[in-house]
TrEMBL record:
<protein>
    <submittedName>
        <fullName>RNA polymerase sigma-54 factor</fullName>
    </submittedName>
</protein>
<feature type="domain" description="RNA polymerase sigma factor 54 DNA-binding">
    <location>
        <begin position="277"/>
        <end position="437"/>
    </location>
</feature>
<dbReference type="InterPro" id="IPR007046">
    <property type="entry name" value="RNA_pol_sigma_54_core-bd"/>
</dbReference>
<dbReference type="InterPro" id="IPR038709">
    <property type="entry name" value="RpoN_core-bd_sf"/>
</dbReference>
<comment type="similarity">
    <text>Belongs to the sigma-54 factor family.</text>
</comment>
<dbReference type="Pfam" id="PF04552">
    <property type="entry name" value="Sigma54_DBD"/>
</dbReference>
<keyword id="KW-0804">Transcription</keyword>
<keyword id="KW-0731">Sigma factor</keyword>
<dbReference type="Pfam" id="PF04963">
    <property type="entry name" value="Sigma54_CBD"/>
</dbReference>
<keyword id="KW-0548">Nucleotidyltransferase</keyword>
<keyword id="KW-0240">DNA-directed RNA polymerase</keyword>
<dbReference type="InterPro" id="IPR007634">
    <property type="entry name" value="RNA_pol_sigma_54_DNA-bd"/>
</dbReference>
<feature type="domain" description="RNA polymerase sigma factor 54 core-binding">
    <location>
        <begin position="78"/>
        <end position="263"/>
    </location>
</feature>
<dbReference type="InterPro" id="IPR000394">
    <property type="entry name" value="RNA_pol_sigma_54"/>
</dbReference>
<keyword id="KW-0808">Transferase</keyword>
<dbReference type="Pfam" id="PF00309">
    <property type="entry name" value="Sigma54_AID"/>
</dbReference>
<keyword id="KW-0805">Transcription regulation</keyword>
């Protein structure tokens, strides 16, 4: 067969979306939290002399916050506590309590290897090799560290951490230190009858030791972490008046951008084409940024309004029940893509008179069964019911997962044992064997 190739010219019209850099940035801005948005705006202002950023003044703009009971909240209690770091806290104690000797030098050497949780992250053998100290000297240095505050600091593992805290606590049960030292693995595995038999004590005393250990901290240094920035700026505010629910965008909590008109007019007097081109480009950048910030706020507000429409009972009833709701439902109503709704709810918060909630927390999958009014049951409702059943169980004979399945089935909630176990674990509730008590 003879090969033949023909060429021709024809016009073809197609329509497609070009994902430009500005569009990509707009999508990213929607995903930003309030803190990330403020950082982004500040960054844009550094590159654009025509942008002035007006940071929100919370002290002047907001009314005095009220608690759920209607009492005024003390502003001083809102101020972050910029406390010392764990390392600085230890250094202060070392210089105050220990003389300037070779042993203190070793103590300062070991402190460098204590992590933020308060644990020593180097073995004594390696410490001796690096410092050239004798093993007994390094052990003495570690002992001095373990006498410092907070109790448990300088421990090499969890068992030693708990023992150090127990040793310095007058409230500790008499046999607590002995149980931790000789039967730690059995205690963790809840082999309490075996421990009681070995120590010739009632099982109830082992139960008391276990209850006491739960009051100790497994990370003694964690409390010294910086608390700066541990606050949430809500994106939307909800006001409830009887049966009426109103949601508004928290514009006052957002950074505001202002155009430097006087500077623009001053520079526009230049006859240099490059300067005029630069100014026009920066003006367009300002307009894009302002528009993007407003679009972000409007999108989040629309999503929040749709959520409230579906979850009215949560805002009006004290039990705070949640109905099944998925991203696709909101996306279809607003005629946007699911990914847009996902970006609009992740890291975005809603403030109400009874708390602050992340928008994504209002989404819950549907599970089997219906309530008395014929409505679908959400996973959050199931979890709440599981908590109630376990809270009211006989602690000497806790409910197994299969028994929980049977109780839920009697309430027309059909779940498998695996699903119940998954929800129980998600709630941080241990199995029935680990919930059993002997007192």
């Amino acid at each position: 067969m003879k090969f033949q190739q023909n060429f021709s010219q024809a016009q073809k019209q197609t329509q497609k979306l070009a994902l430009t850099q500005k569009l990509q940035q707009s999508i990213q801005v929607l995903q930003y939290s309030v803190e990330e948005l403020s950082a982004f705006v500040d960054s844009e202002a550094l590159d654009n002399p025509l942008i002035e950023v007006i940071e929100p003044n919370y002290t002047l703009q907001y009314n005095k916050p009220m608690s759920g009971s209607g009492t005024e909240v003390n502003y001083l209690s809102q101020i972050p506590d910029n406390r010392l770091s764990l390392f600085e806290h230890l250094l202060d104690q070392i210089h105050l309590n220990y003389r300037d000797t070779y042993l203190r030098t070793l103590v300062l050497f070991l402190v460098e290897y204590i992590d933020l949780n308060g644990f020593l992250k180097i073995t004594l053998e390696d410490a001796c090799e690096e410092s050239g100290a004798a093993p007994i000297q390094m052990l003495d240095a570690l002992t001095l560290i373990q006498q410092l505050d907070p109790p448990g600091v300088g421990a090499r593992n969890l068992q030693e951490c708990l023992m150090l805290q127990t040793e310095r606590d007058d409230r500790a049960p008499v046999i607590a230190y002995l149980v931790l030292e000789e039967h730690f693995e059995e205690l963790v595995a809840r082999k309490w009858p075996e421990i009681a038999k070995a120590l010739a004590v009632p099982v109830t005393e082992i139960q008391q030791v276990f209850d006491y250990i739960q009051t100790l901290t497994p990370t003694p240094g964690a409390s010294f972490g910086s608390t700066e920035g541990l606050y949430i700026i809500p994106d939307v505010l909800v006001k409830i008046d009887g049966e009426e629910i109103q949601v508004v965008s928290n514009r006052r909590g957002m950074p505001e951008v202002k155009f430097q008109q006087s500077y623009f007019e001053q520079m526009a007097q230049s006859q240099d084409p490059e300067v005029l081109k630069y100014l026009e480009g920066k003006k367009q950048d300002f307009q894009w940024l302002q528009k993007t910030i407003h679009q972000r706020g409007d999108t989040i507000l629309r999503v929040a309004q749709a959520i409230i429409t579906h979850q009215r009972d949560f805002f009006l009833h004290e039990q705070r029940p949640l109905k099944p709701l998925i991203l696709k439902t909101i996306a279809d109503e607003l005629e946007v893509h699911e990914s847009t709704v996902s970006r609009a709810v992740n890291g975005k918060y809603m403030e109400t008179s009874f708390g602050v909630f992340e928008l994504k927390s209002f989404f819950s999958q549907k599970v089997g069964g219906q309530n008395g009014e014929g409505e679908d049951i959400s996973a959050d409702t199931i979890k709440q019911r599981l908590q109630e059943l376990i809270a009211s169980e006989n602690k000497n004979k806790p409910l197994s997962d299969q028994k929980l399945v049977d109780l839920l089935k009697a309430e027309s909630l059909a779940l498998s044992r695996r699903t119940v176990a998954k929800y129980r674990e998600a709630l941080g509730i241990p199995s029935s064997a680990k919930r059993k008590r002997f007192d």
